[in-house]
Amino acid sequence: xxxxxxxxxxxxxxxxxxxxxxxxxxxxxxxx
Length: 32
Fold this sequence. Notes:
2 helices
């Protein structure tokens, strides 16, 4: 069960990193 929780946390943090990257960097760089 702990492995599933860790994987979900990884996905959550990955999405958060993408959101912060979009805020800090130009959105065009990420879309391309």
